Every structure is written in C-alpha cells, then in structure tokens.
Amino acid sequence: MKKWLFNPFTYIAGAQALAIGWGIMIVTSIICFFTKTHFDGVLDLHYSANQAPFWMHLVEPLIDWVILTITIYGAGLAFSKSSIRMIDVAGTISLARWPMLFAALIGFFIHVPAKMQTLQDIQNAFTASMIFFSILELVFNIWMVALFYNAFSVSCNLKGSKSAWIFVAAIILSEIFSKTIYFLLSKQLN
Amino acid sequence: MQKNLPHICPSCSSVLMVKSLVCEHCQTEVSGLFSMPILAGFTAKEQDFIIEFVKSSGSLKVMAQKLGLSYPTVRNLLDDLIQKIETTQANSKTNLK
Fold first, then answer.
1. pLDDT digits over B38-62, tens only?
2. Can you list the domains of chain B with their CATH numbers?
3. A66, A150, A158, A171: which is deepest, by most CB within 10 A?
4. CB under 8 Å to A171, separation ≥6 — which residues?
C-alpha cells in the first residue's frame, strides 16, 4: 500500500503512467475550474476569488508538467549512467501530480474573499477552517513532491544523497522557469 | 532445503575461493585453488533475474511483464547488476595483481 502511495512507478511508468496522469490532470482541471484553483508554478497552488476561463485551468498543469519533465529529463541525461527514456520521465511526472486532485477538491471548502485590502479583510479570511484546509493542502503538496522525487529516481535511476541534491536543483530551476513563463503569460494577457 | 553457496568469508569478509571439487558419482576429488564464477557471488534473487532475462531473450519489456514491474524498474535492476559485475571484475583484477 505504502509503495503504491509513494512509489507507484515501481509498477507503472511510460505510456501507461502518462495516460493515467493526463486523465487525472484533465479531471483535476475541471474541478479547478469550479473551485477557482490555480497551479501557477510547478509547486504552486492558489485558491482564487475570481473566475478564470476554463482553458487557463487546462493549460496551467500542462505548463508545469512540460517544464518539470524537461528539467528532470535534462538532469537525468547529465547525471545518470543509465539509458533513460523521455516517455518514462514524462509518464511518471504526470502521474506524480495526482495528489493535486485532492488539493483541487479542497477548493470547495475554501472561501477566498474578493477583496483583501485592509488588515481586517485578511483577519476575516483566516478562519479556523481556512487554516485547517490550508495545512491539508500542504500535506498533498508534500505528497506530490515525494512522488516527484520517486518519479525522478525511478525514471533516471539516480539514488542516494547526490540524487537528492540534483532533484532539489531541478525543482528550483523548474519553479523559476514556470514562474517566468506565468509572468510573461500574464503580461501578454493583460 | 535449498542451500545457498557462500561466497564471502564469515571471518574476514573476503571473497571465498573453491578448494576442492567432488564427483558425486565416484567420489573422485579434485583439489586446487579455483576462483568462483562471477554469478556465484550474486544472491539467489539476482541469479533468478539473470536467468529470466536470458530466457526473455534480453527483452526488458518482456521481463517487466513477467515480473509485474515497470520498464525503468527492470532496467534499474539490470543496471545495478551490471554495476555489480563491473565492480567484481575490477576487484578480481586488483586481487590478481
């Protein structure tokens, strides 16, 4: 059970993982549209008060997945001695995003006020349930990062402390890349 | 009961060598100092993996299906074995010198 929760890639990878991962990503995008949840960064998740078009909810996880796949694959090519396959990296990374399905569902329980201008607005927004669900969302985010690491480790055959440092560097790089893309995208849209 | 062939010295952890071989049929004994084949140094699980790999004509995809594991997992197991073989070969070369 633990293996399936944290390292399903021992059993599923490649095209099969990609198909399942994409399927879950589409379902997650639909939920995100209704819960106004945004994945504006490889690790980021934000609940919004404003309704965005559906295509935006569909494109966001796609951008995150493409960037992380390229970064992880690049790291694998640079540091792994194995003959790694792009399809394994792409598949395992897409499947590793599946905890975001639950994180998106949390959006049904979080109410973000339309205006957060005064200190009083911020104080009103931070209710006990808001804090509880924010912590719960963080748990799903940590779970996703653990899955990302195992996806990287299995698909690139990298283990040990050196692999952890390579992974951290790849995550930071992909976060910077994704944030830059979202910044440029928002400039184009506004 | 299936006995496992020991390949590491329990006293000093060095690689063991074969001192004598006996014919089960006529009890003729051959004495000497022979190196063990590389594969004898592997665990039973690793030896089974190698046998299955050969029987699968070296196809990782077939191996993955047989073992119920993903393709990269099987490739990683094979790479670990390659690494182990290379290390063993390097160690035996060093010992010969």
1. 888 888 899 999 999 999 999 999 9
2. 18-91 (1.10.10.10)
3. A158
4. A42, A43, A68, A71, A145, A148
Q: Do A14 and B79 touch (CB under 8 A)?
A: no
The enclosing H or E element of A33 equals helix A14-35
| Stretch among A90-99, A103-112, A143-152, A166-175 having the lowest mean pLDDT | A103-112
Q: CA A87 to CA A81: how far, in whole Å? A: 17
Q: Chain A contact for B72, CB < 8 A?
A: yes
**Of A47-56, A81-90, A92-101, where does mean pLDDT reach its minimum?**
A47-56
Distance from CA of B41 to the nearest CA of A (A): 23
Any CB–CB contact under 8 A between B70 and chain A?
yes
Closest partner residue to A13 (CB to CB) among B68, B71, B79 is B71
Asked if B21 and B30 count as a contact pair (C-beta separation under 8 A), the reply is yes
Flag whether residue A9 sits within 8 Å of chain B, measured between CB atoms: yes
Comparing CA positions, the residue from A34, A66, A67 lying closest to residue A52 is A34
The neighbouring-strand residues paired with B95 are none
- CA dist A55 and A93 (Å) reads 21
Whether B71 sits inside 8 A of A83 (CB atoms) is no
The pLDDT tens digits for B58-76 are 999 999 999 999 999 999 9
Are A156 and A84 in contact by the 8 Å Cβ rule? The answer is: yes
Contacts of residue A49, Cβ cutoff 8 Å, sequence gap at least 6: A36, A112, A113, A114
